[in-house]
Write a structure and sequence with these properties.
The chain has 239 residues and is an alpha/beta fold. The chain folds into 2 domains: 28 residues, no CATH class; 201 residues, Rossmann fold (3-Layer(aba) Sandwich). It is 36% helix and 15% strand. The strands form 2 sheets. It has a 5-stranded parallel beta sheet, sandwiched between helices. α10 links the parallel β6 and β7. α5 crosses α8. The protein starts with a helix and ends with a strand. The mean pLDDT is 90.
Amino acid sequence: MSVWRDILDYILPPRCLQCGRPLHENTGLCKTCFADINFIVRPYCQRCGHPLETDCADNGQMLCGRCLRRARREFRLSRSAFAYDEGSKRLILNFKFNDRTENARFLAQTMYVAGADIFAAGVDVIVPVPLHFTRLFRRRYNQSALLASELGKLSGCKAETFALVKHRRTRPQVELSGLARVRNLRGAFSVAHAEKIVGKRVLLVDDVLTTGSTLRECARVLRKAGAKSVDTLTAARVI
């Protein structure tokens, strides 16, 4: 297979997922586009993964103000690979809306690195944030499910792409803010196969973390269905 892959790469050389330039090796991004990605590295909040100011860090064990104030949390740990900004926006939007499903492999690789401590703590099953069937019909694929499948290959953990379902259509979260986002999602998700969740350490996967409302509601539903713990992992997050 490696020989045929080399021949195919010679005839149709891999291209940068961001700018389209030919690549000498199938690394996903060229050096220029890779340098534009603002990867999230320590110091960050030990729980939610939000970047912290350097002078506030204490060996990577600090918590952000929001996590200090919030006693109850729907998920245990949250990690994201990079910031959602001008350097990464095209990569995400093309993947999500423009049928660039080949981006899933590179994105999952960055997520696997970002979520190293989650996988080290133990993951039994990977669950993607679902789409309502009407949106899935229009888009033809669930980008979060593609990420979950790729993460499953990298980690050896099983991806259960239909364990969690969205049975109620909601307004796009980008149109809402604050409490309206929470109300919009309440009661929209349910667990379809509880036997795949009960007693399991669940890794909940999505493409972008904006306010966290969607992930928190999904985590709440998973915990209610009997999940032992829920961690979240996204490719990007709004800082």
